[in-house]
Amino acid sequence: VLLPCLAVRPSQEILWPLEVAGSEHLLVTAKGRDDAKEFHTAGASVLEAQQAVADGEADASVTEKSWDDYWLATSEVYPNCSLQTEGSFSVDEPLHVNDSCIWHANGVQVTVKQPMKFHGSLVLQGELHIIGAAALDGSCMRVLGNLSVLGTHVTFTGCENTNWDNDEAGSGGGVHVGGDFRLLRSTAAFFRCKAKVGGGANVRGHFEQRNSIANFE
Fold it and tell me: What is the CA angle 153-158-163, rounded to 5?
């Protein structure tokens, strides 16, 4: 499947689960029993809300909220990233973040002169602006695991991936995601981003969005 400026892996799998089962949900990672219990509780609330709407006992907004709670309950829980949470900074050398983490960005502006690479999964929250200041040998941001954007406004502007020799490294101008890319209550905008495949974003796993807007210009 190839959307304008967004490349995703073709899939025959259903993005929304018909039955609530931790092992069958596309975005569940290995979690402890407490997390699994929370997951099942949240999933059960979705089915209960859907039945209530079907029976005329509740309106659709109840199901919407239950789905949102369900997504949050199944989101990865990681420590904070060791990255700036306010103001602005420039990436002048290749930046590597080895562990999965949550980046709480309060209007952070990042000028990217060298690629940013996250070797695990990344959760974004808040407001983040990524600006490509030079043509790169890769995406402005590369996430090898999953990328979850929760309650966030994130923009990628002027990211140009000039690696045309490597199919994977040359995919995605703004962001390359090795796992799944999910948006919840968020906006993600890509402006003037270029790459061999997926000028804005390239997703090797699944792309899911809920109560969100993804914009490519």
Answer: 115
Digitized pLDDT (tens) for each residue of the chain, 217 residues in all: 334 455 544 333 323 322 222 222 222 222 333 333 333 344 444 455 555 556 665 555 555 556 566 555 555 678 899 999 999 999 999 999 999 999 999 999 999 999 999 999 999 999 999 999 999 999 999 999 999 999 899 999 999 999 877 666 668 899 999 999 999 889 999 999 998 877 889 999 999 888 899 998 8
Q: What residues contact 108, with CB distance under 8 A and at least 6 apart?
A: 84, 85, 86, 87, 88, 89, 126, 127, 128, 129
Do residues 49 and 63 touch, judged by C-beta distance below 8 A? yes
Residue 42: CA count within 13 A, CB half-sphere: 21
Rounded to whole angstroms, the maximal C-alpha distance in the chain is 58
Could you tell me the pTM of the whole model?
A: 0.69
- Exposed, middle or buried: residue 61 (CB in 10 Å: 0-12, 13-18, 19+)? exposed
Contact (CB, 8 A) for 195 and 172: yes
On whether the CB atoms of residues 184 and 72 are closer than 8 A, the answer is yes
Asked if the structure places residue 96 within a domain, the reply is yes
Domain boundary among 74, 92, 121: 74
User: Which contiguous run of DSSP H or E holds residue 88?
Assistant: strand 86-91
Q: Select from 74, 95, 118 the last residue of a domain.
A: 74
